[in-house]
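Lab notebook, bench 4. The sequencing result for the construct came back, and we need a structural model before the next group meeting so we can plan mutations. Quick request posted to the team channel:

Model the 3D structure of this chain.
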Amino acid sequence: MLRTTHCQFCSIVPPYLLLKLAEESADPEVREQAIATLQFTRQARVQRVAMASNLSVTPAPAAAPAVKKRRIFDCENSNDLLRTHVRKEGDAETADIAVNEAYDYSGITWDFFNMLAGRNSIDGNGLPMTSSVHYSANGKGFDNAFWNGSQMIYGDGGKIFHRLTQSLDVVAHELTHGITQYSAGLPYENQSGALNEHFSDVFGVVVRQWHEKEADPKTAGWLVGEGLMLAGSHYALRSLKAPGTAFPGDIQPDHMSKYKKLANNELEDYGGVHINSGIPNRAFYLAAVALGGPSWETAANIWYKTLTQRLKGTSSFEKCAYETISVARDFFDDATAAKVAKAWLDVGVISGTEGPVASLSMPVV
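Done. Here's the predicted structure in token form:
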């Protein structure tokens, strides 16, 4: 078995939101911080691409015992990711809330995937979960959080967001990008990139639902990053239940008829990876509600198996839909597969007359 060391760079805040703030905010400090965050996120991305170009495919290590290994570093308001090592696995809490949140929430994420599938950390082989907090490239704060291909990095916000460590679903979202990197490897562009964001949104929300024991999908919370925006405590970064409603100016579509064809560059979110992800996000929500029971049982199980066993490289929404249907049938039954199929039908990704859907009896609702 081979493991790819190709690095991806995935941030929680979509560039189109920062661009909107940079262009339209009435507060000059907000405009300045949005521009700075875009610039420093771009610099970090370029650095990761340069590093990735020197990496190659290497054999996977032997399976390691399933033991958490967390390491937290304090950047001390700089871009030095390893400036001060402040907490390691088993250490007591510190006086720094961001350190403790990064430690606790990465541990909860580890526990979830270990519970769900016996997964041993991000790579499945005990990779230490490294986080750097209080990151800043200009000494004035950083309004973003990202997985850089090997670890988590968190800014403190300040002008646009609260500190980025405070949201469990944001932490789990970003760490799931690492799981995608070590499994499906979905390229961060166009539909495969939107699926990359989709799986992170799904597991970010499901990890939080699991931790908070929100067992009924009909009443559970389906927002990513709720309360992070300084502009409004009820705003969020994304909504799986109702894409396009998370915050004023949210442009996520909830159906393929509204799919946004965008250029594959930073200004247009690499083909809309944070935008068009609203379509499969809505499909997961519909599937979870139709299947019933806690989302982390049947629905998350199907999506996890699809991500880690059925998808590889560039994948379309349609490919993902058909694979989740097949997983539902292979590991559960035809009734489960039919409910998953209907979710994808309802968001316009597939047709009921093609592929594995044609032989299913659709549930009546």
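The chain has two domains: 2-181, 190-357.
Will bring this to the meeting.
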